[in-house]
Design goal:
Elements: E1 6-10, H1 15-26, E2 30-35, H2 38-50, E3 55-59, H3 65-79, E4 84-87, H4 102-130, E5 133-138, H5 151-171, E6 176-181, H6 201-209, H7 216-228, E7 233-234, H8 241-249, H9 251-276
Parallel strand pairs: 1-2, 1-4, 2-3, 4-5, 5-6, 6-7
Helix pairs in contact: 1-2, 1-7, 3-4, 4-5, 8-9
């Protein structure tokens, strides 16, 4: 991998964003950290600098197009351009279609999907002018496999997958690489942002997050390696790949399993709901 890469990461203050920042810093990259949480962002910047890498922190809300225009100006002024754009900022929501409020749909789509659109619209002209660049969009297995009661989250991540595929077709011949990452459940701070009308949802999601055999550092290492190689679809969790292939090749069987799984989850939630009632 090229040393001294200029890398911008949204949602960089914790979780996978922080792991990616440290992974690129270890390889000599210059890191632009973007996050709404200033305290955590400063801590991540200190960790990056401890590794001997250059970087800066920019506090921003990715729901604003102005923040990306400011970032474009800043990386251009500081570094003369950018090599890698990582759209990692994300939030979580849960709820059945007739229970989750529409404001939660608007909120999650604005952050998980439209922020990626804003970032790409802002930085693609720079990449075109440079004749090179890499876009890494962090989606989720929820963008490929859609569970019950996760409509807004699944739609937001499926949108990121669709956008990434479109960008791959648009930009590949221009020397611009595009990768989309679809991790499964792993330990992250995503639970802190969870919105749900179901009081039992948080405990269920926490339980699912503990099942992963790999952590954020493992996933970051996979992303750095595969994105550098030009891999489009990056699936860090091997355990989910057979289910994705099942959906592609045997959709009727996949839907049958999906319905059974939804019923099982509802049974698990019922006792918790009774306790909380």
């Amino acid at each position: 991998m090229q040393k001294d890469l200029r890398v911008l990461i949204t949602g960089a203050a914790s979780g996978l964003g922080k792991a990616l920042a440290l992974a690129y810093a270890e390889k000599g990259g210059r890191i632009a950290l973007v996050d709404v949480n200033e305290a955590r962002g400063r801590e991540t910047l200190a960790a990056v600098q401890t590794l001997g890498a250059q970087g800066f922190f920019h506090q921003a809300d990715v729901r604003s197009s102005d923040c990306f225009e400011q970032l474009l100006a800043e990386v251009t002024q500081r570094w003369g351009g950018l090599d890698v754009l990582i759209n990692n900022a994300g939030v979580a929501a849960h709820g059945a279609i007739d229970e989750a409020p529409i404001v939660d749909w608007q909120w999650i789509l604005d952050i998980n999907l439209m922020a990626v659109v804003r970032a790409c619209r802002t930085f693609v002209p720079l990449f075109k002018a440079q004749g090179h660049g890499t876009i890494i969009n962090i989606a989720s297995m929820a963008g490929l496999l859609h569970s019950a009661d996760m409509g807004s989250y699944s739609v937001s991540k499926a949108g990121v997958v669709a956008l990434s595929e479109t960008l791959y077709a648009e930009l590949r011949m221009l020397g611009i690489k595009v990768s989309v990452v679809c991790p499964g459940f792993f330990q992250t701070n995503l639970i802190e942002s969870l919105r749900s009308p179901d009081p039992a949802a948080e405990s269920l999601v926490k339980k699912l997050l503990t099942l992963s055999r790999i952590d954020a550092d493992d996933i970051a290492a996979i992303i750095v390696r595969k994105a550098a190689a030009g891999t489009f679809m990056i699936l860090p969790h091997a355990i989910y790949r057979p289910l994705w292939l099942l959906k592609r090749w045997f959709p009727s069987l996949y839907l049958f399993i999906l319905i059974r799984l939804a019923g099982s989850i509802k049974k698990q939630r019922a006792p918790a709901q009774k306790i909380l009632a």
